[in-house]
């Protein structure tokens, strides 16, 4: 009987300890980010995708293969397109400039590109190396959070602007 009393007393004490504030990580509040967002008007942001002449690869990312074509991501900048009909000497055919692009998927002739917060479907003719058309689905992906962990909602960014990066405050 005595053991049960001690057990009940211990359970009550353990239960009551959760009612007290013992301090800890929850007591540290940071009210201001060390960064400020770099924004761009949505109209200008949507006009940035462009098919350009070839250029050297400087910061290669993921590699994609479609039939005899190779697409190499230039991290956060766009995609290099190569004709790999002759694997010993792949031929650079174009550069698809898509600032903020990190990933893509290909289905048929449609290239689906992750363009920061938007998903862009580019109808690309691989044989003539031309863009036939483009469709954009806006705000499909979450906005960029600051490097110190503040959500994009914390910053007062107008609805017609897109956060394209962050810079340290002066």
Summary of the model, kept short:
This protein is mainly beta and 170 residues long. The chain is built from 2 helices and 11 strands. The strands form 3 sheets. The protein has a 5-stranded antiparallel sheet, with no helix packed on it. A 4-stranded antiparallel sheet has the order 7-8-9-10, with no helix packed on it.
Strand order of the largest sheet: 2-6-5-4-3
Helix/strand-derived category reads mainly beta
Write down the Rg. 26 Å
**Whole-number average pLDDT?**
88
Which shape, going by the Cα principal axes? elongated
Q: What does this protein look like?
A:
- This protein is mainly beta and 170 residues long.
- It is 12% helix and 43% strand.
- The chain has two helices and eleven strands.
- The chain has a five-stranded antiparallel sheet with strand order 2-6-5-4-3, with no helix packed on it. The protein has a four-stranded antiparallel sheet with strand order 7-8-9-10, with no helix packed on it.
- β3 (60-66) and β4 (69-74) form a beta hairpin.
- The termini are far apart.
- The model has no long low-confidence stretch (mean pLDDT 88).
